[in-house]
Amino acid sequence: MKIISKKYLLLIFLAFLTLQIFGESNYKQKKILVVVQGNSQLTNLAMGDGRQLAQLLGHFNTITDVIGVDDYKSSSINNYDYIFYLGFYQKNLVPASFINDIVKTNKPLIWINTGFIEFSAKYNTSDLYGFKVSKLDTASIFDFVKSNNKSFTKGEGNINLIEISDHNKVEIIATAISSKKKTEAPYIIKSKNLVYIADSPFAYANSTDRYLLFADYLHEILNEHHEESHSAIVRIEDVTPLDDPEKIRDITDYLSERGIPFLIGVVPFYVDPIGGVRISLSDKPDMVDALHYVEYNGGTIVMHGVTHQYKDVTASDFEFWDANLNLPIQDEDANLINRKIEMGLGEFSKNGLHPLLWETPHYTASNILYKTISEYFSTAIEQRLSIENPDYSQFFPYVIYKDLYGQKIYPENLGYIPLDPNPKAIKKAVDDIIKGAEANLYVRDGFASFFFHSFLDIKILEELVDKIENLGYTFLNLKDEINSVKSKKQILLSGSQNYSFVVDDQYITETYFDQDGKIKQKKNADKRTIGSISKKINLKPGEYYTAELTEFYKSEPGFLENIFQNVSNKYDEIFDLDENWNELRVVILWNHYAKGAAYNDQASLASVFQSVN
Q: Which residues, 6+ apart, have CB-to-CB distance to 403 below 8 Å?
């Protein structure tokens, strides 16, 4: 390995990061300005919508800035390729500094929701664009949106009514429908360089919502025409050291036999503070064995927090959020988070397990957590808060290649099956997931991603998998994708890529794993390393790689050592027999259904009798 300068290392990293995020894109990077009603503070709820838009734009080759219109400086739009404006409150007098600039520009302008009424009153938008917005209709309850013969639900009934005066200037992209009043109104329209959307598509969005229409239409707005592809992800959720390892093996067997790759969200420590219980994966070797079984049979581990709890019991509580106050944890800082993450990764590492992705417990955390976790994991699978407000949780219909913190986010957009004794409730949950999957087929590169708990009847999982595959989705193997996990002591990679590491007078052990999670090659450095190292790792799909820093040299048996050991073993076989031993006949009551560690226990017992006469 070659030691290189920090400056050169930074240039390599930036170039590599750009290639990894947009390496397959032929589209020029676009600079985008998102302007929202009010100021730029993250307590401004309009910033919640603006940052949700910025996250969606991370699906494309973009660089996005989000500001409040109160902080807009004249002529700023000249520095950008696209301008989005998002109104929020019904009364919305947009400052003249911004209005004057957008009237003059020929750059693409996308105006969303409120403010256009005041704009229409001040400027003759009927002459400029061939339409105006007259009022906000809160009575008709527009509950559907249709486009290209496809219908979507509309979570919020309000709509800004568009009056088209010149149909030669205006193209109607989508129409809102009120099933209550049996009336229609334009929902998305286009005129010259302007696209207007008659409400906020982020408001009350669910898995069948017009939000999907908007997310797909961004391809047209940004002129990035991604190929049609429909991927699916199934995740086994909330697995702790106290879960039943046999159920994990059963699910693994089913999915593996079907050839379906899957994720498993694992919490490495179970904590019950009231009961005084703290149990780690290391305390449950049978669960560790089951998780190895997962990795050997098509599963990928997701680190689902460290304890998945703050003050309550694991899995029922948040971890990086105060459920009692419904706020970020007071006095939480990056150092505290760092220590927890290092502890969690260390627990996986010492048990030979390899979490490739991150998932925030209950999808709820502070901005500090999101920023900090992005320094460890390149990739997450979850929904995200756009601001520190639980009402601003956002799901994604497709991959976000670069979120607000630089992470790649795989979607979870369809929900889960609850534990409910009522079969009708289970059936409804299954139907809702399938309806969401059907709706997301409209998004040209949309996903069907859901999660499932191991304590449920596996027949429900079988039904879901069958129906999603029948819709035309293909389950995605996340080990085939480019992912990286970096802690103080270890780097874990999947997919061919470069990496850099700062080594402080330590040894490096490199391990290559094949597609089945078995060790393919292991290299122990015989000298200590000091400084920054850089290396390119070439991996086939499904393979992964670790580089571990250690304080002590790990020696491998040498050639002579192996010969002496083999000779010793052969000598024992030939000369260490006692002909006077009487042969005993032993019967073992064998459990043919045992798997994993339970099977190994039986096999170990049998091997004892095989080693004596």
A: 55, 58, 384, 409
Query: Which amino acid would we find at residue 552?
Result: F
In the chain, % of residues over pLDDT 90 = 83
How far apart CA 60 and CA 78 sit, in angstroms, is 21
H-helix or E-strand spanning residue 597: helix 596-610
Per-residue pLDDT tens over the stretch 174-211: 999 999 999 999 999 999 999 999 999 999 999 999 99
Segment (H or E) for 507: strand 497-513
Q: Using one digit for the tens of pLDDT, what is the confidence trace for 39-61?
A: 999 999 999 999 999 999 999 99
The pairing of strands 109-112 and 82-86 is parallel
Sole residue written with tokens 């990086």 = 320
pTM greater than 0.90: no
Interatomic CA distance for residues 418 and 126, integer angstroms? 51
**Lookup: tokens for 489:** 């002591």
In angstroms, the CA 49 to CA 54 distance is: 9
| Rounded Cα distance, 55 and 405, in Å | 10
Q: What pLDDT is attached to residue 555?
A: 62
Structure tokens at 492: 């874990």
Q: Concatenate the DSSP letters of all residues of 79-103 into one string.
A: G-SEEEEE--SSS----HHHHHHHH
Q: Which of 421, 422, 426 has its CA nearest to residue 461?
A: 426
* Burial zone of 608 (CB within 10 Å; 0-12 exposed, 13-18 middle, 19+ buried): exposed
User: What residue type is 238 in one-letter code?
Assistant: D
Rounded to the nearest angstrom, the gap between the alpha carbon of residue 183 and the centroid of all alpha carbons in its chain is: 39
Query: Under a CB-based contact definition with an 8 Å cutoff, are residues 447 and 440 in contact?
Result: yes
Calpha distance 512→519 (Å, rounded) = 6
- Of 366-370, 464-468, 565-569, 597-601, the range with the lowest mean pLDDT is 565-569
Q: Residue 581: pLDDT band by 50, 70, 90 thresholds?
A: low
Beta-strand ranges (E) seen in 118-230 are 131-137, 144-147, 150-153, 159-164, 171-178, 183-191, 194-197
The pLDDT assigned to 552 comes to 78
Reported confidence tier of residue 5, pLDDT bands at 50, 70, 90: very low
Q: At what angle do helices 285-296 and 596-610 cross, to 10 degrees?
A: 100
The residue among 404, 403, 428, 401 whose CA lies nearest residue 415 is: 428
